[in-house]
Amino acid sequence: MEGLITKSCKLLGLAGAVLALSLMAGCSNAPDPAQRAINAANRADQAASRAEAASQKAQQASASSQAAASRVEQAASDAKAAADRAEAIAAKSMASSPRGGRRSYRRHRKAAAEAAPAPSDSGAAAPPAATP
User: Among 28, 72, 100, 112, which residue's beta carbon has the most beta carbons within 10 A?
Assistant: First the structure.
C-alpha cells in the first residue's frame, strides 16, 4: 500500500506541476484586448502626427518652389528685355556704320578665290572655296 501512496503522491505532484505551468503560460505578459486596442490607438495617433508634419514640410517645399519659379520667370523677362535692348543697339549701330565693310568682304572673297588650287587633271571636281 505504501507503493500506491507514493505513486499517487508523485502523480499528484506531477499533475500540480502541469497545472502550474499551464496557468503560468496562460497568464503570460501578453496584453489583454483592451491594452492592445490602446496600443494600436497610440500608434495610429503617432502615425497621424508624422503625416501632419510631412504635409507641412510638403507645403513649405511647394511654397519655396513657387517662389523660385517666380524668380526664374522674372530673370527670363529681364534677360529678354536686355536682349531686346542689345538688338536695338546693334541695329542702330549697323544703320550708322559706313558701307565700306562690304568692300573688305568682297576683297577677302576675291583673294580666297585666287588662292584656291586649280582643278586637277583627274577629272574630279575641285572643292568649293571656303568663305570666311
Answer: 112
